[in-house]
Structures are given as C-alpha cells and as structure tokens.
From TrEMBL:
Residues 1-60 form the FERM domain. This is FERM domain-containing protein. It comes from the Eukaryota. It comes from Gongylonema pulchrum. The lineage of its organism: Eukaryota, Metazoa, Ecdysozoa, Nematoda, Chromadorea.
Length: 60
C-alpha cells in the first residue's frame, strides 16, 4: 500500500523529505516493473534526467 498525495506540488513545497521518499519508491518500482518494456532511447533520456537530478546543473 502506498500513500498518494492529492497535491504533489504542495507536498514538494511543504514536505520535501516525504516527497523525496515517495519519489525514490516510485523510481524503484519503475526500475523493477516497467523499465524493461521501455525503448532504449526513452531509457537513455530518463537516465540523463535522473543524473541531472542527482548531480544538479553542473557547468564546467
């Protein structure tokens, strides 16, 4: 069972820790249950977005 907030944007703004926990749960579910069905191009784009989220927008 999983809690799904009514307003995800409000959750992001007011409860960042809970939002990040929910994000990590959904991401793990996606990786284990859906990712093998996704075209390679989409998987690469999603991986790039995940790297950007983890590392931020680092410019040299």
């Amino acid at each position: 069972m999983r809690f799904i907030p009514r307003d995800i944007q409000e959750m992001y703004q007011t409860e960042m820790d809970a939002f990040m926990f929910l994000h990590d749960q959904i991401f793990a579910d996606y990786i284990t249950q859906v990712s093998w069905k996704v075209p390679a191009e989409t998987a690469i784009e999603l991986a790039a977005l995940q790297i950007r989220r983890k590392l931020g927008n680092q410019n040299s």
